[in-house]
Amino acid sequence: MARRISKAKSIDTRTEEEQQQDRARRLRYGGPWAITALGPVLVEGAHVAVSGNPAALALATLGIAGTGAALCKFLGHLDSKAKRDKDTVRLHQVNSVAVTAAATLGTITGLDTAATASTWAIGGVGLALANNLWSSFHKKGSEKGASRWEKLEAEIGLAKHELKEAKSNGKGTVIATVEGKDGATADELARRIPAMASALKLGKGRITHTVDDDDSSLITMRVQVADLLKEGFPWRGPSAFGASIGDVPIRTGRYEDGEDLLLNLTGQLRDPGPLSNGNVEHAIAMGVNGAGKTQGNQLIITECCTRTEVSVIVIDCSKFQQDFGHVRHGIEWPIDKKDAARRFFKILPTAIEKRTDFLAAKGLSKWEPGCGLNFLVVIGEEAADFAADNEHYQKILRTARAAGIWILTSIQRATHNNMDTDSRANSPAGLCFGLRDGADAQYCLPDEAIDAGAWPQWGNRKPGYHYAAGLGIPEERWHVTARTELASKRDQADAVTAGAAIRTPLDTITAEAFGDLYVNRTTYDAPLLPKEEGEDNTVQQAAPSPSPAAPPASPAVEASPAYSGPPDEEMDDVDEETMAAEVEELNEMLKNVLDEDPEPGQYDHLRIEDEIEPPAEDTPVFSLPSLVEEGDRMSPEECKSAIFARLDKWLREGKASFEPKELNDLWMRVDLEGQRSWWNRLRKQLLDDGVISKDDSDEGYGRYDLMRSPLSDSN
User: Are 642 and 558 in contact (CB under 8 A)?
Assistant: First the structure.
């Protein structure tokens, strides 16, 4: 008896979820058979009840048909809300229509004849078997290859974001269109992207998104499931050798989806392709040391050096020869010293003014291909050396665009202490290489790129990887990772060498505006490359540009003799009593000084009538500028000419700056009573004429930069 009770009260060890799944399985497989078996009883009963009354029969059939149609529509709505697949939706619709039709026809004709009963049985059994087979095979297939999106819906809560379309480009990238339902926003989806990346086992930044400009409920998600940039791409050579910089964009690399990375520097291109822009956009190239900024800059220089209507100016005050030695022979103006960079930025506003005046005279509001001026590409490497707290740099970035000048500021971190915020604001384009902290991308990339998911926190582990924004690039590609092409220094040097035959010389307007700084610059006619086996190891020498003819030599100027006091004859009119009184006063003063001396007795041996011992030979002697002898004086014009000749000589010899005391031996010879006032007036004139400029560097207090020769206007 006890054993029978134990069997009757066996405990079900299945979980509640397993029990629910078991009930759903029995309903799914047994439901069609139950309808096939019990349906005839209900249908025949309805037929018997209404068959004797035509009106009731008509109303009953209409009611059954209408109810079936409403159930079909309601079931379709439930399937849509549940986001069931198309096969399941079709099955539900077929079953609903079949049951509705069978119940309607059975109510009208009845199932009391062999024909109607067999029709019901055959149709019911067929549908039941079809449902059972579909449920079995479709369930297994869905368990094997369920949509990742369906899993994400359940795991991280994406029920309000419906996947409309997803397609792969065959290059490791999946583009998916997602629609926000019931007020769901792109921000809500963006907040779930980190969890989505984790669920899909992808790295941060590999899932990005953009929102449709016309419909904020439509979101385009871009999922990079494979890194096709890992092996890199070999350099394919210049993108348009011999073409104008204003013809087509320049190519510097590839995106991770295989598309070419193109840059529109000029804003005005005869064939812009997808990079329609219209304006010159100064750029910031930012990344940690070793992230690949310099390699990217080298490709830009090589591209420009194989085009026409363009001249390249490179500023690198840290390691110019190491960074750009292999392309130096194509650079129009290499600047590798801080003082030279400072003087360049002081003279550049003059060039901007001259260039804009030239364009305005032609009725042009901006640079255009064929206008007669070369487009200027200015690349500032390690820009922290000159961009921080440089008011000239700020002003130039504001005004250079209309003059056909593009400036690339290459810097490791464009924070306010390395680059003025105004300068950063006037550089809207960005080339963001690897960073130590991905949040620093805000100093280089537009907000749209960061909001879309750009995250360059790979440091220098992926040299050449970067994001590119602005420069005509469509906004939907600002958050797509790219990589610069892999080019050897020798290949780039050969391309630049070949480009010498087609490069356009700097236009006269700009060259004259740059003046003596440009004329006396150092240029190179050969690349600096590592020695290969069997190659001569002779170091390439700089080839200076031809200097202007030297002015007539000024007469040799000797240093003025020290001032020895008034002549002896001036002492003849001094009264002896007055002299004695003054001597007595001096004795009294000396006695008071000795009494107050902190080291009493040290000077007791001194008397006023004793001679002072001469200083030792190595004792420094301080002397002030003094009047010169009558025969050594010069007229103001002669002195001015001598000063101008010396400044011109310094400039031709490469002297960048000077202190006023270096000219004391000249201006003290002017035959005027107020020599210092005369010199101050001449110095102001030189400043106003732009011959010299105050050295505004931290270590340059009291010094002046030589900007041009004072003789250039008179030649």
Answer: no
Residue spans per domain, the chain? 26-144, 148-224, 250-530, 630-706
Taking residues 73-95, report their average pLDDT.
73
With contact defined as beta carbons under 8 Å apart, do 258 and 217 qualify? no
Three-state secondary structure readout of 494-516: HHHHHHCCCCCCCCHHHHHHHCH
- Mutual orientation of helices 293-305 and 489-499 as an angle, nearest 10°? 20
Which two structure tokens, joined as six digits, stand for 69? 């149609």
Over 50: is that where the pLDDT of 572 sits? no
Using the CB atoms, write b or e for 120-135: b if 16+ within 10 Å: beeebeebbeebbebb
**Residue from 180, 435, 422 nearest 291 by CA:** 435
- What number of other Cβ atoms are within 10 A of residue 48's Cβ? 12
Q: State both tokens at 22.
A: 């078991």
Q: Which residue has the tokens 């579909």?
A: 134
Per the CB < 8 A criterion, the answer to whether 450 and 435 are in contact is no
The position carrying tokens 């509705």 is 100
Which one, of 282, 276, 267, lies nearest residue 429 by Cα?
282
Closest by CA position to 478, among listed 491, 467, 462, 494: 467
| CA-closest candidate to residue 206, choices 228, 189, 227, 223 | 223
Judged by average pLDDT, the poorest of 11-25, 51-65, 412-426, 590-604 is: 590-604
Select the CATH number that applies to the domain covering 250-530 from these four: 1.10.760.10, 3.40.50.300, 1.10.150.120, 3.20.20.80: 3.40.50.300
- Can you give the three-state secondary structure of 602-646, one letter per residue? CCCCCCCCCCCCCCCCCCCCCCCCCCCCHHHCECHHHHHHHHHHH
Residue 190: Cβ within 10 Å count: 19
Give domain 148-224's CATH architecture: 2-Layer Sandwich (3.30)
- The 8 Å CB, 24+ separation contacts for 553-558 are 553/645, 554/641, 554/642, 554/645, 554/646, 555/642, 557/642, 557/665, 557/666, 557/669, 558/632, 558/665
Q: Is the separation of the CB atoms in 456 and 200 below 8 Å?
A: no
Q: Above 90 in pLDDT, residue 326?
A: yes
CA dihedral 78, 81, 85, 88 (to 10 degrees): -10
Sign of CA dihedral 530, 536, 539, 543: negative
- The CATH number that domain 630-706 falls under is 1.10.10
Binned at pLDDT 50, 70 and 90, residue 59 comes out as confident
Q: In angstroms, rounded to a whole number, what is the distance separating the alpha carbons of residues 252 and 235?
A: 9
